[in-house]
Amino acid sequence: MNKFLNYSLILGLSCSVAFAADPKPADMVAAHNEWRAKVGTAPLKWSNDLQAKSQAWANELKKNGCGMKHSGPGENLYWASPRKSANSKDANGQWIWQNSLQAVSDQQVVDSWGSEVQWYDYASNSCNAPAGKACGHYTQVIWNTTTEVGCANAVCDDFSQVWVCQYAPAGNYVGKKPY
Questions:
Q1: What is the pLDDT of residues 37-71, one digit of tens each?
Q2: Fewer CB near the last or first residue (10 Å), C or N of the chain?
Q3: What is the signed CA dihedral for 152, 174, 69, 47, rounded to 10 degrees?
Q4: Helix (H, G, I), strand (E, B) or coil at 46
Q5: Which of 155, 140, 178 shows the shortest CA–CA distance to 101?
C-alpha cells in the first residue's frame, strides 16, 4: 500500500509540471516569412528533419544547464527567463520566490531575431550592434538561399526556456550579403 501511495504522489507531481507550447510549424514559418517579405527573399518551408535536429539540440542544452551554445552554423537560439513571483513570506519575513513558465509565442521568438535589423546596414553589409548584441540572427532569418526551417524548444529545470531554429541551407557567409 505504501508503494502505491508513493507512486500516486510522484505521478501527481509529474502531471503538474508545466510545458512550453511547442513551436507551431505554420506560425513559425509565417513569422519568418513576414521578415523575409520585407526584403524580398522567398518564403521558407517547414522541415520536419530540421525540427527533429532542433529538438535534439534543445534537449542537449537543457541537459547541460540551459546555456546558450550553438550546435553549428545555420542556427538561431532564443532564451526566455522564468516568470518569478512571490506571494508569501517565510518565518524571517523574507519573500518566498517561485518560478513558473513564461508564455512565449513563435512570433515573439522570431521578432526578437528580426529586431536586429536596427543594427544591420545592407549597403556596407555590416553590423553596428552594441556590446552583447548581434545581427546574425536577423541575417539568418532573411538569408536568400535558405529554403527550410525547423524549430523546437525545451523547458529547463528552473522554468527558463531554450528555443532552437535550424535552417537549410545555412546562411551567414562572411563577406556575402544576405540578399
A1: 999 999 999 999 999 999 999 999 999 998 999 99
A2: N
A3: 20
A4: strand
A5: 155
